[in-house]
Amino acid sequence: MPTTLTAFADVTTSDSALRRFLHGLPGVDAVGLEARAASLGTRSIKTTAKAYAIDLAISMIDLTTLEGADTPGKVRALSNKAVNPDPTDRTTPMTAAVCVYPDMVATAKAALNGADVKVASVATAFPAGRAALPVKLADTADAVAAGADEIDMVIDRGAFLAGRYLDTYELIRSVKEACVRPDGTTARLKVIFETGELSTYDNIRRASWIGMMAGADFIKTSTGKVGVNATPANTLLMLEAVRDFKAQTGIQIGVKPAGGIRTTKDAIKFLVLVNETAGEDWLSNHWFRFGASSLLNDLLMQRQKLSTGRYSGPDYVTVD
User: Fold this and answer.
1) Which residue numbers are catalytic?
2) Over 298-317, what HEC string results?
3) Among the four 154, 158, 184, 275, which has the fewest Cβ within 10 Å?
4) Under DSSP, is residue 162 helix (H, G, I), strand (E, B) or coil?
5) How far is CA 189 from CA 123, 233, 236, in A?
């Protein structure tokens, strides 16, 4: 199968060529997209399937703290929770990753102590992305050098909305190169579009294709820092994009909805979207993630209810 570079070499030679390609993508039927997302969200899940879905959702969480008041103690506590989400039940899966700011990567790495939990770091002047390219690349390189396994970058929404598609593409390519370590290994790259600021579904589709062509390992809805974050409709659209991209190139790209997913019911709706749109190949934490902080607590309480038949008290889970 061709790589992204060879498959789209002609498309990315100039701004005009890239614009022609992106504006030549099929337009999004907003009404149909939202109706399908709503319909899939009504699927009934049986008890045994629900238990499987809860464990799968836990294993897909990027347990996140991205606050100015983050301390080493908070990051260590979050890392310990990622490894052992429910101290009363050692069968509970670990989360996929802990997501922190670059200056907290080393702290998270040390706290995880070799556990099978990744350290993800936001970079490129998160969340606004308003910085010069050398600053963004230094931000990324610092996080990778500190031990980040994954980088969650933000695109320059202003550049994208102004139609500077090639600039957006080149930014992602440059950050991808900054994810390469001296030993040749690479941190996986998640590209955040901030879908709530892109205005239209057509723009979300175009941004998805730019990210995938530029070498993203994941495409991600949002930073969680704006009013509109992950929704079933925008996630469905991105799942369709990765499905179509794989059909065309043979290259599989992950999807990460982030922001606003707080309940087990919400998480299961998103898993149904994955299964029914992209397929079973994406039903693992290597290809699908939830960017969340409070979601884990609700999943843990629902998990215990399935096990014991009763809901836990408010002190059952830690407050993040």
Assistant:
1) 152, 220, 256
2) HHHHHHHHHHHCCCCCCCCC
3) 184
4) coil
5) 10, 23, 20
